[in-house]
């Protein structure tokens, strides 16, 4: 398996974002009792943004962002970005099915 180049990663994240709405991220945060900062970090990871860029604009250190990410992952029960995306996709599909029933 070859690693993705930057263009492929960008295309993948753009495709991913079309399916993952802010509502789904909110559901995840509510379900797992994430803090506001943990919610923001999860959104950063899902968007494909880099902590370095966010730290520069947001005023939080990379270590702080990493700690918030680790805490969110522990609460959600995932151990890496891929597991997070799988979980968010699952939650998204579940939310879509529930919305279609109502």
From TrEMBL:
GO process terms (BP): regulation of DNA-templated transcription
Keyword DNA-binding attached: yes
InterPro entries xref list: Sig_transdc_resp-reg_C-effctor, Tscrpt_reg_LuxR_C, WH-like_DNA-bd_sf
Entry's Gene Ontology molecular function annotations: DNA binding
Chain ranges of the HTH luxR-type domain: 27-92
UniProt keyword terms in alphabetical order: DNA-binding
Pfam family of the protein (one): GerE
SUPFAM superfamilies linked: C-terminal effector domain of the bipartite response regulators
Xref: SMART domains: HTH_LUXR (SM00421)
Top-rank lineage group of the source organism: Bacteria
The protein's name in its UniProt record: Spore gernimation protein GerE
Native organism taxonomy: Bacteria, Pseudomonadati, Pseudomonadota, Gammaproteobacteria, Enterobacterales
């Amino acid at each position: 398996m070859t690693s993705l180049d930057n263009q492929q990663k960008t295309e993948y994240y753009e495709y991913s974002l079309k399916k993952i709405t802010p509502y789904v991220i909110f559901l995840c945060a509510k379900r797992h009792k994430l803090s506001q900062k943990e919610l923001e970090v999860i959104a950063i990871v899902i968007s494909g943004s880099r902590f370095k860029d966010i730290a520069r604009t947001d005023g939080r250190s990379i270590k702080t962002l990493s700690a918030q990410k680790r805490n969110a992952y522990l609460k959600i029960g995932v151990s890496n970005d891929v597991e997070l995306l799988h979980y968010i996709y699952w939650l998204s599909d579940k939310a879509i099915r529930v919305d279609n029933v109502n």
